[in-house]
């Protein structure tokens, strides 16, 4: 009989995730019975906005039940508050213009969650660090691809080959660029030389033509001399 009683008590503690009895009592003491019935009726619905069927939800609540009993029933009933958080009641309180109670509930729950989380983290990790049990898995056939556990910074032979190829390509590129620059420079130099030779030939041709013209000009003095010579001979 004691085993079943213990089992029943353990199962009974599963209510909302972060609400306790003292917080529910505080809410019950600061709400009228009408406000408390509305709050519990609103909390039965999962919608974000206020439900339109409020009267139907209130009729399902017994009239002679106190506020704390209504809150406790909602807090532990499956399909209502069981497994939920304080945000359900906080949200409904804000919709009922009970912002002071909603702010108090949110701050109180988070203030209580802080030490609880710190305690769980402290002792939970302590137990994990003290646990030195090593689980060994037997190796067997698997369809998963083999994962290479080689560190990514390890220098492999393929890295040496790729590095050598990159260096060779870089050297070839530099040589090709140098040859291309040399060919362009040589062609430019040849064009300049050809241009100078053409200009020199043109100037020399002009000079020779001018000399020939000077030679072909009529000299009056030579004509007079030749005329006198002919007259004397006669």
Automatic annotation (TrEMBL):
PROSITE patterns: DEATH_DOMAIN. The keyword Transmembrane applies. This is Death domain-containing protein. Keywords: Membrane, Transmembrane, Transmembrane helix. One of its GO terms (biological process) is signal transduction. The keyword Transmembrane helix applies. InterPro entries: DEATH-like_dom_sf, Death_dom. Residues 53-109 form the Death domain. The chain crosses the membrane at residues 161-186.
């Amino acid at each position: 009989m004691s085993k079943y009683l213990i089992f029943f008590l353990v199962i009974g503690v599963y209510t909302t995730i972060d609400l306790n009895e003292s917080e529910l009592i505080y809410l019950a003491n600061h709400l009228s019975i009408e406000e408390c019935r509305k709050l519990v009726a609103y909390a039965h619905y999962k919608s974000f906005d206020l439900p339109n069927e409020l009267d139907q939800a209130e009729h399902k609540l017994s009239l002679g039940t106190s506020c704390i009993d209504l809150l406790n029933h909602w807090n532990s009933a499956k399909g209502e508050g069981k497994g939920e958080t304080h945000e359900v009641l906080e949200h409904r309180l804000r919709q009922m213009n009970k912002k002071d109670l909603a702010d108090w509930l949110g701050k109180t729950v988070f203030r209580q969650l802080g030490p609880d989380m710190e305690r769980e983290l402290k002792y939970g990790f302590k137990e994990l660090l003290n646990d030195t049990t090593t689980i060994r898995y037997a190796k067997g056939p698997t369809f998963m691809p083999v994962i290479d556990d080689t560190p990514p910074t390890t220098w492999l032979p393929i890295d040496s080959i790729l590095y050598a190829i990159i260096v060779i390509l870089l050297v070839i590129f530099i040589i090709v660029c140098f040859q291309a620059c040399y060919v362009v420079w040589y062609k430019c130099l040849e064009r300049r030389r050809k241009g100078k030779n053409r200009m020199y030939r043109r100037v020399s041709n002009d000079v020779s033509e001018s000399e020939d013209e000077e030679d072909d000009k009529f000299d009056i003095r030579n004509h007079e001399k030749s005329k006198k010579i002919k007259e004397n001979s006669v």
